[in-house]
Structure formats: structure tokens, C-alpha cells
Amino acid sequence: GFPDAKTEYLFEAYLYMGFVLTRQNAPLYEVNAAFEQAVKMDPKRQLDELVIPPDLTEKFNAVRDQLVGCLYVTTEPIDANLMVVQNDSIVFNMATPTVLCELVNRNYQLLLTKEDYEEQFMPLNLTAGTTDTLFVTLKPSLSSSKQKKGKKSAWGWVARGGIVAAAAAVLYKTVVEGGDENLEELPAPPDRPSQ
Q: What are 87-136's pLDDT values in tens digits?
């Protein structure tokens, strides 16, 4: 989907800061840090090269290319539905085979579904700035051979809900837009009463 207003403002603020730092001949690490934050706000964003001068777009694109990766996904059989989930939101939802780009160096969850096949749920840790390939063979569902043609089982919907709930539990994060340095330690559980 489209980025929300807060994300849009933060992207533009970091981008503008990177432009200003570039024009002031700031150290490259400061310029790159500002552009890196902008890319993390909206990895899919491309700059309008007709409006923004080439020296600025080149620096931004160099940072973006180091952060953004692509993944080629194919399945056997083809035409499976692929959902890529991050932080409780669907980043991509498309049929295989497909190429997913604009993936930043973060953790994603992949869910592959196809009627009459078992669902595949897997984590994805993409390395920044790389392109990789994923091939998945889907297993025929045991319940599909027992079902009559055109009849859906309620169990399939329950299983899907369980996977979505599991995905939500896995994806729940206490840290928003931060790294490991922002993690808060949880209190230890209370001591068990002695008997």
C-alpha cells in the first residue's frame, strides 16, 4: 500500500537532510546516514530525476542500492499465492513466479498458499543489497483428496486463521522503527513460591 502521512514526512525530512548535508560538504557517513533513514522509511520510493539534480540522486541511489535487495520466488506448482508480511502488514501479495524488490535489510515472513496444497510459512532474512532465489515445492494437502469437488471445509479456514494468528504473534514487535539499541529488557518472572 501507500505510505502513511508520518512515513511520508519522515522520508522527505531525511531526504532533505541528506541533500543539505551534501551541499554543505558534510562527511560522507553523515550524508549516507540521512539517506539510509529515508530509504528505511520508504524503500520503494524512487526520486524524480527530472526535478532533483543528478549529483543528489546518484548519492541517494548509491545508498539505496546498498540497502535494498530483490528475491526471485518460484514454486512447484506455479501460480501459488505469495504474501510477504512485515510488522503485521502485508508488503507484497502476488502469484508465483515473481520478483520481489524494494526489500530492505529486515526480517520478513513468507506465506505461500495454493488450493489443494499445504500452506508454507517461513521466515526470510534478506541480506542488504543482494538478489537471491527461492524455490519451494508445495506438498499436496491430505484433506483435499478427501473433500468433494466444490466443497470447502471449515477446517481449512480455521487452519488459515491459526497461521495468520501465528504470523501476527511472530511479527509483534515492541520496537518501532528502531534497532537492537532500542530494546527494553523485560522484567524477570517472579520467583516461584517454595513448598
A: 888 888 999 999 888 777 677 889 999 999 999 999 988 777 788 888 99
Q: Is the peptide bond before 97 cis (omega within 30 degrees of 0)?
A: yes
163 and 83 in one domain?
Answer: yes
Strands 89-95 and 81-86: antiparallel
What's the whole-model pTM score? 0.54
From residue 149, give the alpha-carbon distance in Å to each of 53, 71, 138, 145, 156: 60, 35, 20, 9, 15
Residue 29 exposed, middle or buried by CB count within 10 Å (0-12, 13-18, 19+): exposed
Q: Compute the average pLDDT of residues 14-37.
A: 95
Based on the domain organization, do 84 and 152 belong to the same domain?
yes
Q: Are residues 76 and 121 in the same domain?
A: yes
